Amino acid sequence: MAVDLANPGNFLTTRLRQAINWGRKYSLWPIPYGTACCAIEFMAAVSSYHDLSRYGAELVRFSPRQSDLMIVAGTISYKQAPILKTIYAQMCEPKWVVAMGVCASSGGFYKNYGTLQGIDRVIPTDIYVAGCPPTPENLFHGLLLLQDKIDREGLVASAQRHGEQTG
Ligand code: SF4
Known about the structure:
Elements (H helix, E strand, L loop, with lengths): L1 E2 L7 E2 L3 H10 L4 E5 L2 H10 L22 E5 L7 H10 L5 E5 L1 H5 L20 E3 L6 H17 L11 E2 L2
Helix pairs in contact: 1-5, 2-5
Iron/sulfur cluster binds next to helix 2 and helix 4.
């Protein structure tokens, strides 16, 4: 319950889950896991013209311990997969993952012996953003979907999360 200090007779009620999820979804701290060309597009998304901060996710961190949103931007090889898993494991709970672009989502056109066919083979993935590369607007659409998803989550972190697809 929140009291309106200007008019102490007025108050607002909500549910704890909704209040906490409201804070979570508008204060995401992304860690970019960039390995290829999609990472360049990610740089455009966080720069001033497109301005990721409009979605409350501008505080890009390069330490997994300070991040709750991993954005995987680029191709992941089988050699990279254990590293990706380790960095994901080091992130705080609750945490979410966005696969940015077809390479991260499914291996893309790299259907070969060395390329992981989608990051969801090794880490739970919440949102798949279509495109090669996705535009910043595609990525923002994915973030909006993620915010909706966070809004619906229970307080106990998201062990049984299911993927959603953009585009
Ligand atoms: S999806 Fe396209 S742009 Fe993104 S990393 Fe793969 S090849 Fe590069």
